[in-house]
Amino acid sequence: MKKSKLIAMKNRSLVTLAGHTREKIEYLIRMAQEFEKYPNRRILAGKVVATLFFEPSTRTRLSFETAANRLGARVIGFADPKVTSGTKGETLKDTIMMVSSYADVIVMRHFLEGAALYASEVAPVPIVNAGDGANQHPSQTMLDLYTINQTQGTLDNLNIYMVGDLKYGRTVHSLLMAMRHFNPTFHFIAPDELAMPAVYKRYCDEYGIKYVEHQDFDADTISDADILYMTRVQKERFADLDEYERVKDRYLLKKDMLCKARPNMKILHPLPRVNEIEYSIDDTPYAYYFQQAQNGLYARQALICDVLGITLEDVKNDKTIL
Ligand code: CP
């Protein structure tokens, strides 16, 4: 492979959305909208997408694989690292180098923060970060932005409440950073043990993003929310399981807490849900988490195309729609 092509491809990796401009985010939303209109095409015929999941996943892996399949690509990979030669001592670098020689793009979830960045530095093909430890989850954020825009008609000037595990929840970290272009007001609702880390509050300060911290979680506190972003307490990140037991059920959204909600308010959750949202809420007009997960398909179709250098214009002019 020519060196110039190699550099260009490396630069297309998606490790975080933090560096994306407002225009780039809006562009990706427009591309995802094209895929929502026509998700079945052959625009990726001849391509191979690898999904390497070193941590469990339902939505992210299956929606990436569905995205690739519906666009005509073939998919290789693993859902469980125990079946790989990593168990024999093979390094992440060697694994990435090998898979790069088989696939055109690698979607990777890893338990170590920074693993996606590292992979993007060694891989000759684009890496898409499907979650690295408690750090970032940019493809989730892309579908979250798509969903927020879809439900609110805009990304600008919204009150976004983030509830639950704000310490270990990579989805809230990613979303907070990507929203910096859109003048949000964040409300962080978490127990002390799971508060939004100082580094993200400093990020808010640096970019002039307003935020308020709460511990109460009741109808009055959330009455002016446009988006109520619930999160699971990330059991797998706790060093002390007694601490997990103390905080795991602290914030349960109950139906009667929606009595003062704005009509436009939508409840999002990256899922899986454990004990954060009462099931009776699923039938209310506020619940939007299953549509949010479905949007993952269109957002991830856009992201795979983007890292492969396929443009919005290419997608609009695509003649392979099925
Ligand atoms: N939202 C999300 O990352 O879900 P999975 O862990 O099931 O992929």
Please outline the helices and strands.
Blueprint: H1 3-11, H2 22-37, E1 48-53, H3 59-70, E2 74-78, H4 92-100, E3 105-110, H5 115-122, E4 127-132, H6 138-152, E5 159-163, H7 170-178, E6 185-189, H8 198-206, E7 210-214, E8 227-230, H9 241-247, E9 266-268, H10 289-307, H11 312-316
Parallel strand pairs: 1-2, 1-3, 3-4, 5-6, 5-8, 6-7, 8-9
Helix pairs in contact: 2-10, 3-10, 6-7, 6-10
Bound molecules: phosphoric acid mono(formamide)ester.
Phosphoric acid mono(formamide)ester binds next to helix 3.
Keywords, separated by commas or semicolons:
9 strands; Rossmann fold; 2 domains; alpha/beta; globular; four-stranded parallel beta sheet; single chain; five-stranded parallel beta sheet; 37% helix; binds phosphoric acid mono(formamide)ester; disordered N terminus; 322 residues
Describe the structure concisely.
With 322 residues, this protein is of the alpha/beta class. Helices cover 37% and strands 14% of the residues.
Describe this structure in words.
There is one protein chain. This protein has 322 residues and is α/β, with parallel strands linked by helices. It has 2 domains: 3-136 and 296-316, Rossmann fold (3-Layer(aba) Sandwich); 138-293, Rossmann fold. The chain is built from 11 helices and 9 strands. Strands 7-6-5-8-9 form a 5-stranded parallel β-sheet, with helices on one face. The chain has a 4-stranded parallel β-sheet with strand order 2-1-3-4, with helices on both faces. α6 (138-152) crosses α10 (289-307). The longest helix has 19 residues, at 289-307. The structure holds phosphoric acid mono(formamide)ester.
